[in-house]
Specification:
single chain, alpha+beta, Penicillin V Acylase, Chain A, five-stranded antiparallel β-sheet, 13 strands, 33% helix, fatty acid amide hydrolase activity, EC 3.5.1.23, lysosome, signal
Length: 344
């Protein structure tokens, strides 16, 4: 399977800081179909179309496309707004079939093989960082963006995504909480599961992330919002807050949360590391990014934890590897410091 293939091919690469991802504004006061126009205008549309077609051809079974095209004809029935209208707008802007736009948004759910860390320093400050690892790495590096979503001229939340996707893989609500997702490795027939869940009104994970960033008012409400809605794929939600102890990893089945793991700094648990495996089980030897991350964090020490030191931790091999698309560092209490780095 593609997931297994992905997990066995990363090759460590040297530490690199890389350039920042381009940053744009999406104005939520605009009609949904128009919101991404200024973002798309900065990119090579033919490049996006050709690579998107290859991703679909390489990964999507022939039987899936007719099913998804049927869904696309009734987009508002299956997808809530603003996502349905935003996808229509992107389909038009990119000249990509509407059904294929739906596929490209769903495909991400199963391919985010990443490392996320939430940590607390000795002063009680919460920091959050992530590497996103993905096949089609070079292409995705060139279409990864940071987005400030604004309402009434103010930043409501910030997120990182790929051009053409209406959800976000990580983000922050300023002075409230930070959030990232990692795929939970699953050995089943992922497209059958996705279609089944989609027709049953399961949430697209990156869209739930965006909704939570938009509506949750604090760390606790974000954890609740991410724990219960049905999803189209298994996943991990990693959440950081602004108060001491506000860090969690939520392990999700499609149906509900199976475990919530919290920071417990008074008991010596001052960081949480999540890759793509349940934290109570040993990661497979072929893909153990957890142990190097823990060793690097322990070597750094709680007193020295900050966004810069977390960036160094995520630059340790094999946490940083040839599939790493970008690295994001964030702290909701210091929202101006949100930044993502394009890995080279």
């Amino acid at each position: 399977q593609a997931a297994t293939h992905l997990m066995t091919i990363p090759t460590p690469i040297p530490m690199t800081t890389g350039p920042p991802l381009p940053r744009f504004t999406v104005n939520l006061d605009l009609p949904p179909s128009e919101r991404w126009k200024d973002v798309v205008a900065h990119f090579d549309l033919e490049m996006i179309r050709s690579h998107s077609a290859k991703i679909i051809a390489d990964n999507v079974p022939a039987w899936v496309r007719p099913v998804v095209r049927k869904v696309a004809r009734e987009l508002d029935r299956f997808f809530p707004n603003p996502f349905a209208e935003e996808i229509r707008g992107l389909s038009s802007l990119l000249s990509i079939d509407l059904g294929d736009m739906v596929i490209l948004n769903i495909f991400n759910e199963f391919k985010m093989f990443c490392t996320s860390i939430v940590a607390q320093d000795t002063a009680g400050n919460i920091y959050h960082a992530r590497n996103l690892d993905y096949l089609y790495t070079d292409f995705l590096r060139n279409i990864s963006v940071d987005i400030d979503f604004t309402r009434d001229g103010k930043v409501s939340f910030t997120g990182t995504t790929f051009v053409g996707n209406v959800g976000v893989a990580n983000g922050q609500r300023p002075e409230k909480f930070t959030l990232s997702i990692d795929a939970r490795v699953y050995g089943g027939s992922w497209w059958e599961s996705a279609i089944e869940a989609l027709l049953g009104r399961g949430h697209v994970v990156t869209w739930l992330v965006r909704n939570t960033l938009s509506t949750a008012t604090d760390f606790k409400s974000a954890v609740v919002a991410l724990s219960h809605p049905p999803l189209i794929s298994n996943t991990y939600f990693i959440v950081g807050g602004v108060n001491p102890g506000e860090g969690a990893v939520i392990t999700r089945r499609r149906e509900a949360a199976v475990d919530t793991w919290f920071l417990q700094p008074h008991q010596g648990i001052w960081y949480l590391v999540e890759t793509n495996y349940d934290h109570w089980k040993a990661p497979p030897a072929r893909d153990d990014r957890r142990t190097p991350a823990m060793k690097a964090l322990n070597s750094t020490g709680q007193a020295n934890i900050n966004l810069h030191s977390l960036l160094k931790v995520l630059s340790v091999k094999p946490i940083l590897n040839n599939l790493t698309v970008y690295t994001t560092v964030m702290s909701a209490a210091q929202p101006q410091r949100y930044r993502s780095i394009k890995q080279m």
